[in-house]
Amino acid sequence: MLDFSRQFSVIREEVMAAIEEACVSQRFILGPQVTRFEQAAALACDAPHAIGCASGTDALWLAMEAARIGPGDVVVTTPFSFFATVSSILRCGATPVLADIDPATFNLSAESVASHLGSAAGDKVKAIMPVHLYGQCADWDAFTTLQQEHGLLLIEDAAQAFGATWNGIPAGALGDAAAFSFYPTKNLSAFGDAGMLTTGSEELAERATMLRAHGMRRRYYHDEVGWNSRLDTIQAAVLEVKLRYIAQWNEQRRNRAAHYDQLFRAAGLVGSSIAEGIVLPITDPRAHHVFHQYVIRAPRRDALRQYLSERQIGTEIYYPLPLHLQASVAGLGYKRGDFPHTEQASAEVLALPMYPELREDEQATVVETVAAFYA
Questions:
Q1: pLDDT digits over 227-266, tens only?
Q2: pLDDT tens-digit map of 324-354
Q3: What is the DSSP code string of 349-361?
Q4: Model pTM?
Q5: CB atoms within 10 A of CB 25
């Protein structure tokens, strides 16, 4: 599914030198490498401010806490995402309200959100949190319209989308704030947990910087109860190196995705629905998709996955159980059937091997094995 060693072999000397610099400096938390990475990442995202933190989950929380989202507020988001999308809202004391996805892109449907905003409970909504799932930005034109009509905050869950754009604007510069994850499997990845918040608001940036360090603006003077979510210097050093390559790596991912498309079509496996065959990923023409994952819809998905696994081909399901059906959030009151597009996607999606160093012969093996299963 993913081979870290191939990427590391290319950048090993640069990474080891960066780690050694951090070790020699003995400044292991929020050292100068953190500031340098924040500045470079802000430039890459075309965002005035970037604040490094301990994880993508913390970045989501910081974005909302800095915007003073809390008890009594509602944040509308998707049920088809990693758990942190919802848990970060709950951690702020706010209430997550879910809306169904666009079945073509798997992203939060602005139309579904609009129907909630038009309901009696719509007045309590303070923010919308679209997720740029699998590396493709959500329909930001539609969400910007909703923001203007209802006076809401837009928070990007851009955990999977570093380098993605919408109408040429980078993820991280679209909303009032954005959260990135640098978990080791991400397109831009650390050697452990790490995250980042971006924003165009000086006030949000200042508050997030304070909140990530126990609410301190001055050392040992705690203005608010914040959190310990500082970015380790060594992680920033690794990210600073990798940031130089991310545009190249993302383009390689896009090339790998195009090659998969070509192979599947040549094999005669493609349909417009799973009743006709495999459904390939769809890219909105306004989006620059960076393919954090290459996700197909597959007939008899679970049996196919088992078949591939037996032949040593890694796959993953993102996500097998939608958020509204998770036991830990049963108190939100949702039930099976509430979000049909989400539930159908959970039963059909399958992520295939996808990383910049994936070879074309390996992709051919994947597609040939898929074809053998359906034959």
A1: 999 999 999 999 999 999 999 999 999 999 999 999 999 9
A2: 999 999 999 999 999 999 999 999 999 999 9
A3: EEEEP--TT--HH
A4: 0.97
A5: 13
- 13: number of Cβ within 10 Å: 9
Q: Tokens in use for 225?
A: 């109860």
Lookup: tokens for 38: 């924040």
The amino acid that residue 270 corresponds to is: V
pLDDT at 119: 82
pLDDT band, very low/low/confident/very high, at 118 (cuts 50, 70, 90): confident
Tokens coding 190: 């650390």
> Residue 99 corresponds to which tokens in the numbers above?
């809306």
**HEC states along the chain?**
CCCHHHHHHHHHHHHHHHHHHHHHHCCCECCHHHHHHHHHHHHHHCCCEEEEECCHHHHHHHHHHHCCCCCCCEEEECCCCCCHHHHHHHHCCCEEEECCECCCCCCECHHHHHHHHCCHHHHHEEEEECECHHHCCCCHHHHHHHHHHHCCEEEEECCCCCCCEECCEECCCCCCEEEEECCCCCCCCCCCCCEEEEECCHHHHHHHHHHCECCEEECCEECCCCCECCCEHHHHHHHHHHHCCHHHHHHHHHHHHHHHHHHHHHCCCECCCCCCCEECCCCCCCEECCCCCEEEECCCHHHHHHHHHHCCCCCECCCCCCHHHCHHHHHHCCCCCCCHHHHHHHHHEEEECCCCCCCHHHHHHHHHHHHHHHC
β-strand pairing of 195-199 with 177-181: antiparallel
- Give phi and psi for 50, each to the nearest 5: -135, 130
For 62-94, give the secondary structure using H, E and C: HHHHHCCCCCCCEEEECCCCCCHHHHHHHHCCC
Distance from C-alpha of 285 to C-alpha of 117, rounded to nearest angstrom:
27
